[in-house]
Amino acid sequence: MAYAAALIAAIPEAMTESARESFGARAVIYGLLLDDDPAVRHRQLNRLEEHADPAVFRETQKLIGNQNDVTPEMRIPLIEMALPALRQLSPTQYHSFRDNVHQLIKEDEEISHFEYVLHRMLLNHLAPHFHDRKPPAVRYRSLEPLLVDCGVLPRNGL
Predict the structure, then answer these.
(1) What's this model's pTM, rounded to 2 decimal places?
(2) What are the extents of the domains in the chain?
(3) Helix (H), strand (E), coil (C) string for the chain
């Protein structure tokens, strides 16, 4: 619990504040998906400039400076912070957001572990809300049946 609290406290304040409202939450997710390769990042930003809400695009640009302070361990908690705000989107905003996320992931022509996890988290938490689907049934109530699979996950992670 202490580690989790310290990890969340270490997330840049601008990121946590933005994650808690719908414009900022979209910008946080977009920012997490921006590639380190300057050419890919340029294409991703062009995509957002053309297809994202202009205010969200400006917020994304504003948050880019904070991205360097977000360690891989902070990404999942930051996504989890953004989910309640993302549920507040209108259906039109959600569909635009979903399409932009999909295109940002596709831009570098490979899917990283992090991109896969982010995409699954968004689908699992937002699709039932926006598509009147039931959330997936809980298959496991403990990690015990998954211990072998968990043992093969990379330690440096997502």
Answers:
(1) 0.81
(2) 2-150
(3) CHHHHHHHHHCCHHHHHHHCCHHHHHHHHHHHHCCCCHHHHHHHHHHHHHHCCHHHHHHHHHHHHHHCCCCHHHHHHHHHHHHHHHCCCCHHHHHHHHHHHHHHHHCCCCCCHHHHHHHHHHHHHHHHHHHCCCCCCCCCCCCHHHHHHHCCCCCCCC
